[in-house]
Every structure is written in structure tokens, then in C-alpha cells.
Amino acid sequence: METFGLWIAALLTLGIMSFLYKDNPIYKFCESIFIGISAGYWFVSLFWQSMYPRLYLNIRGAISTLLHEGRISDDRWLYLVAGILGVMMLLRLVPKIGWISRWPLSFIVGSTAGLYFITYLQSNIMNQIRSTIIPIYVPGNLGISISNLIVFVGVFCGLVYFFFSREHKGAFGGAAKVGIWFLMITFGASFGFTVMSRMSLLIGRIDFLFGTWLGLIK
Amino acid sequence: MKKTKFIILIIPLILIFFNLSSPQEKPVPLPPTEVKAFDTPNDNGHSLSVTWKLSPDDGAGKNNVVAYEILRAESPKEEFEVRGMVPSGENLFDDKGSREKEDKNYLPSHKNYYYKIRAKADNIFSESEVSNPAFAYGQWYHTGKTPVLAGVIIFSIFALTFITLARKGKKLYIRPLPGIEAVDEAVGRATEMGKPILYVLGLGTAADIATIASFTILNRIAKITAEHRTTILVPCYDSVVMAAAQETVRAGYLEAGRPDIYKEENVFFVTSMQFAYVAGVNGLMLREKPATNFYLGKFYAESLLLAETGSIAGSIQISGTDEIAQIPFFIAATDYTLIGEELYAASAYLGKEPVLLGTLKAQDWGKAVVIICLILGALAASFHFQFFLNLFRVQL
Fold first, then answer.
1. Residue B311 and residue B189 share a domain
2. ipTM (interface predicted TM)
3. Do B184 and B270 belong together in one domain?
4. What are the C-alpha distances in Å from A179 to residues A41, A113, A151, A185?
5. What is the pTM of this model?
6. pLDDT tens digits for range B335-369
7. Domain stop point among A23, A45, A73
8. Which residues of B touch A102 (CB under 8 A)?
9. What is the pLDDT of residues B262-290, one digit of tens each?
10. SS3 of B233, please?
11. Residue B85 touches chain A, beta carbons under 8 Å
């Protein structure tokens, strides 16, 4: 069985890689299997990891508390609200009352945006400002002074670049140009770093094909 | 006589032997004093804190205290259980409990507890007096996050002011963005070639900011495609995003006065697995050969796969994401790229809605405040004024 699985994995890998040549029936076949299996797996995984433990078990626990202890105060009843919102989302499938699904959608988007407001303000603004408040000149240490100056100029000019209320002209435009240079240098470094990690993914697949499947690499 | 001399000599030797072989009694350290228990501030109501005055033998006197053990009980007469240990020199302990009743570490709020501190020196210890009773309770306001509150208030004032101005008709200038200037040209190209437009919302959920910004742009592009009678294909990664995208595209067609040509099957769900989704979209690109591809939203490792395939298919490509690691790939492989916040600005630029324009202006004013803080902060840091740095300290 293991050998059979190995061969299937290897053939599907080659089928997907055939895309490098051009679109072909083998790739279409492998693509369909990939999408179909992933969608089915995702649905089953969602049911057993999310709906069953978080909705069914929690509501069952809350009902059990009510029946056996006569106590209605139980945090688990809140999951009923989530269940109702989920059912309202599914009403999209009924054209006449499909508009009901806009309510849970609005709830998700609005509440998450509100929660993220605080999180992002703290992590992306407060912490960033705190990290950038550094002395421009450190007496007796030229290296750190230059480093701090570069950090300050980079952050300042980067912020100027993302200013949308003014056109990039004159001194303002000059600062914005410096800002985009900083951004591009950073993106170049990030590009090189990420390409290395993508190479390691390819190496993993080549190792699987030539090592695990064909046994050519010991 | 000899016998007497022997006894006189041997007895001291016996006494010395027993003195050496019997264990030396180690000195017991003096106990800590002034034990105070209190509710841990800025928490959810399931934690207590204890402080005490260090034992006189900690770092002085006998100098034999190695650690302090913290013990807790529900009443002074009950058996105390060990809750933790801190090394010598420390006089604060946070007794963090769980909020789950089933958890063995459950610490209920509004229930009195008593503490004792043990000063330990190897195997011997001394115990303090029992502390005052203390109960845990949650706070409504986290004082350590006051800088965040100040930031929220400042930004909210800016946002409300500019939204009000925008609603009153005041023109709020936004500088043109190259990627967005090319949208009309891109859609026109698709119409001339008779090919569809592909719009990829990315792998984010409907709650991600980049996806929300992308919805606004999708609405505008759907309106333009409806006016030009061009097909728009929107393969979705998330089912909730698909529902929102269908509503968005339908609204765009309605605004253009062409609800009759809206096809719901053009906005469809593919799968929620990253690379299976990419395989599907890539296949779609090579088969349908769209004239224009839009990649606007949250992307991860699949960004280059999508962009390169679109390039092979001969599509003009406009991309935008706030994922910093993916921006370089989009810059390298697509024709126009909206970098980070330009994606949010693009949604305001295209949408022209007062709320979006006002919020964008407020962001710019917020950036101006940040720039001023950085300049003042750098000067304060250079002259060693620590207070400015402490203004931005946020406790978790």
C-alpha cells in the first residue's frame, strides 16, 4: 500500500510539473484531483475540527447543564449565536431570502475590523514608533550613529512616500524618491531571501522524486 | 593508674568523634515579613499578586536564603498548597490562574485567598505570617494601554472630521496612483480583445483589511466591465469571501444599469487549500486567456506562481497587497503594483465615497503626527530624555 501511495504521489507530482511545458490533459487531470480532494478534505476537516467540537459539543454541554443542574447561566450558550449566524449565511442558497446572509457578513467584517483596529494600532504604530525613537548621534560611536541615522531617514522618507494628500513635487517629492529607494532595496533583499526558501521547496520535491521514489539518491 | 590515664585520654577522643559525626545543625533563615496579597492589576480577574519584605537573611545576616516558596489556601486554617517559587532577592509573585472551571489551575474571581511565604535554605525553611485575604476581579480598563487609547481618540477625531468634510462636498485631493490609472486601459483592452478579466481576491478572509479594500476596487471594476459588457471571472479561496464578492459584483452591475447580464457562476469558490487554489487559477488563466489580471488582496507564496502564469498567458497584470514578503514578486512579475497602503488608497481613489476619502485623509494626518513624534523622539533620545520614549510604552 505504501509503494502504491508513493507511485501515486510521484506521478501526480510529475503531472503537475508538466504545466511547465504547457497546459495539457495530464495537468488538467491532476489539477482536478488536487482541487476536488482539497475541497473535500477541507470540508471534513472543518466539520470535525470546528463545527462538531465548538458548536455541537458546546451546545450539548449547555443543554446538559440546564437539564441536570437546572442552571441556565453557562457561557456555552453563546455558541448558539454563532450557530444562528452560520445558518443565516447558508440562507444565501435560497434566492428569495438570500438577503439575510448580509447580516452575519456585516457582523464578521465590522467586528473583526474593530478588533484589528486596536491590535494594529499597538503593533504597527505604537511599537514601531517606540523602536524608531533612537538617538541620531551617539557620542564616541560613529558606526551606531550612522546606523541610527539611516534607520531614521529610511522611516521618515518611507512615510513621506505613502503620503497621499500631496503630489510628489519639490522637496516633498525628493524625500518620497529617497523613500521609494529604501523600499526597493528592502524588497530586493526580501526577494533574494524568499527565493532561497522557494529553492528549498523544490529541492524537497526533487529529493522525493529521485531519492524516495526512484532510490537514486541515498 | 594506667587505666585511669587511658580513660582520661579516650573520653575526649570519643566526644570529639561524636561531635564530628553528628550532623551540624544548619541555621534556619529568618522568615519574610509584611506579606500582602492583592488583585493583579490590568487582568481578566483570575490572577492574584503577592509581595513581601525580604528575609533579613537574604543577602545579609546568615545570607542563606536561596528561594521563596509561595503558598496559598482558601482559609488560614486549611492546608496551604505551593503555588510557585521565586529566587532570592525577589519579592513579587503573580499567581496566575485559569478562567476555565474544568482546568485544575482554575482561580475563581471574587473568592478570598490567603498566602504564606516560605524562605528556603536548602532543606530548611521558615514561614511568614498569613497574609490578608484577597480576591481576584477583572478590570474594565487596562491602564497599560492608555497610549493606544490616545491613538484611537486622535485618529477617530481626524477620521470623523474629514468624513464630515467629505460628506459636505469638500474636495479632498488624492494623488494619482499609476496602477489605478491603468485600470480603464486594462478593461478597455479586455473589451477590444473579447477576452475576460480575471480578478483574484487573494487568500485572505472577509475580515482582512486587504480583502475589504479589494472589495471596493472589485465593485468599481465590475461596474466598468458591466458598462463595457466584458466578462469578469472571480475565483475565490474563501466561502465567505465568495458570498461578499457575489454581492459586490452584483452591486456593480446594478449601478451600471446592467443587472440582466450579471452571471453568479462567474464568481465561484475553488478550494480553501493554498496550492490547490493556485493550480485551479493557473489552469483557468491558460485556458480562458484573460486579457487582464487583477491580483488585489492578501497573498502568500502563490503570488509568483499566479503572476508568472499570467505573464505566460499574455495578460496585462495589476497587483496590490499588504504582504511585505510578496510585494517584491509582484513588482518583478506584474505590470503595475500597488505597494502596501496604496491598495487601501486605491479603494478610496476609485470608490470616491466620503467615508473612504475622509479615512484616507485621516490616515495622512495620522502619519504627519507620527513623523512629528519621530523627530521629537529622536531629539529627546539624543539628549537622553527618557520620558518621551515612555509615552509609547504599551503593556500587554
1. yes
2. 0.79
3. yes
4. 45, 29, 11, 10
5. 0.76
6. 999 998 899 888 888 878 888 889 899 999 999 99
7. A73
8. 247
9. 999 999 999 988 999 999 999 999 999 99
10. strand
11. no
- Estimate the crossing angle of helix A102-120 against helix B239-255, to 10 degrees: 110
Between strands B92-96 and B81-87, the pairing is: unpaired
Q: The domain containing residue A194 runs over which residues?
A: 136-218
Q: Tell whether B374 is covered by a domain.
A: no
Comparing CB atoms, the residue among B280, B287, B382 nearest residue A135 is B382
Residue B140: φ, ψ to 5°: -75, -30
Is B206 within 8 Å of chain A by CB? yes
Number of domains present in the structure of chain A: 2
Tell me which residue range forms the domain holding B115: 33-127
Residues B179 and B57 in one domain: no
Q: Is residue B279 part of a domain?
A: yes
Asked if B172 is an interface residue toward chain A (Cβ–Cβ < 8 A), one would say yes
Q: How far apart are CA B56 and CA B118, in angstroms?
A: 13
Note whether residue B84 is domain-resident: yes
Residue of B nearest to A126 (CA): B392
Handedness of CA B327, B329, B334, B335 (dihedral sign): positive
Examine the domain organization and report whether B202 and B342 are in the same domain. yes
- Summarize pLDDT for B156-208 with one digit per residue, the tens: 999 999 999 999 988 888 888 877 888 888 888 898 999 999 999 999 988 78
Same domain, B176 and B119: no
In this complex, the residue of A121, A133, A152 whose CB is nearest that of residue B152 is A121
Residues of A in contact with B395 (CB under 8 A): none
Does residue B388 form part of some domain? no
Subunit contact B371:A156, Cβ cutoff 8 A: yes
Q: Which residues of A touch B277 (CB under 8 A)?
A: 35
- Determine whether the interchain pair A121/B329 forms a contact, defined as Cβ–Cβ distance below 8 Å: no
